[in-house]
Design brief:
By secondary structure, the chain is of the alpha/beta class. The chain has nine helices and ten strands. It binds zinc ion. The site of zinc ion has 7 residues, from strand 1 and helix 5.
C-alpha cells in the first residue's frame, strides 16, 4: 500500500481553482540543456498540482521571526531533530531577516507541530480538517491577507519518522510536492517510499532561492500579484523572474 502525506491548501484557494479555471498546464522547460538544474526543481517545488487540476505556481515563504510551537505530543528526540533541522535551514538560507524561535504556548505561532493523527491536529489547532486514512502526515497553511506571498501561519501533523517530519516542516516553509520526475530525487515527493531521507542538494538550493533576499531582490516579494486566479503565473513565468533566478544562481549564491 502506498502511504501518502499531504499538503493542503486553504479552502479558499482550493475551491476557487476549479478544473474549468483554465489554469495553464505547466511542465518544466523542455530545453533544460543550458538551464541550471535547480531552476526546473524550483519550478517543481513551488508549483501545486492536483488530480484533475493543472498546476500553478505559488512561491511564498515565512518571514521575520518564525515562532515554532511544538506541542507536548512531540517527544524529546523529535524536538532535537526539529531544532537541528531549523538550524540547518537557517544556515542554508543565509537570510539574516529570518529567525526561528521555539515557543511553548500556542499563542502567536507561525508554525505549529503535533505528533499524532488528524484528531489531535484538529483539537490542538481548533479546526475541522479531514484527511484520507492512508495519510501519515500533513501540513496546512494560511496566507497573510495583506502580503499574499507570506505564510502567516502553518500547522503540521506527523505520526512517525524523521523524514516525514522534515518533509512536513518544509511544507510549512513554502515547499509543495515534487510532482515531476526528477532524476536527482527529493524529500518532497508525495509518497513516503519515494522520498529521499533528507533534503537533496537541489532541495537545499531551492530553499536558498525561495528565501533569498539580497542585492537582486527577493523572489517572493517579486511575485506580488494577490489575484487568486492569477496565482502568480504571469510573474513567475516572466523573463524578468527567470533573470532574477539566474542572477542569484550565476553569482554563486547557491
Ligand atoms: Zn507532503
Amino acid at each position: 500500500m502506498k502511504i501518502f502525506c499531504a499538503f493542503l491548501l486553504l479552502a479558499v484557494v482550493f475551491f476557487q481553482c476549479s478544473p474549468s479555471d483554465g489554469l495553464m498546464n505547466i511542465t518544466p522547460e523542455d530545453d533544460t540543456s543550458t538551464e541550471h538544474p535547480v531552476i526546473s526543481h524550483f519550478y517543481d517545488l513551488v508549483s501545486v498540482k492536483r488530480d484533475g487540476l493543472d498546476s500553478w505556481y505559488e512561491p511564498r515563504s515565512q518571514k521575520g521571526t518564525i515562532k515554532v510551537y511544538i506541542h507536548e505530543s512531540v517527544p524529546e528526540e523529535d524536538r532535537l531533530i526539529i531544532a537541528n533541522f531549523l538550524s540547518e535551514i537557517k544556515e542554508l538560507i543565509r537570510n539574516e531577516s529570518i529567525q526561528f524561535e521555539i515557543i511553548n504556548e500556542l499563542e502567536g505561532y507561525n508554525i505549529g507541530i503535533v505528533k499524532g493523527g488528524p484528531l489531535l491536529f484538529n483539537e490542538v489547532f481548533k479546526n475541522d480538517r479531514s484527511f484520507p486514512p492512508s495519510y501519515l502526515g500533513a501540513a496546512t497553511y494560511t496566507r497573510n491577507n495583506q502580503d499574499c506571498a507570506q505564510i502567516e501561519k502553518a500547522e503540521l501533523w506527523y505520526t512517525e519518522g524523521e523524514t516525514l517530519l522534515k518533509h512536513e516542516i518544509l511544507h510549512t516553509l513554502g515547499f509543495f510536492h515534487a510532482d515531476y520526475a526528477d532524476k536527482n530525487g527529493s524529500i518532497m515527493y508525495h509518497n513516503i517510499t519515494d522520498m529521499e531521507p533528507d533534503m537533496t542538494e537541489n532541495d537545499k538550493n531551492v530553499l536558498r532561492l525561495l528565501y533569498y533576499n539580497g542585492v537582486y531582490g527577493s523572489i517572493v516579494d517579486t511575485v506580488a500579484d494577490c489575484d487568486e486566479d492569477a496565482m502568480y503565473m504571469d510573474e513567475v513565468e516572466s523573463e524578468a523572474f527567470k533573470l532574477l533566478l539566474n542572477s542569484i544562481i550565476d553569482n554563486d549564491y547557491l
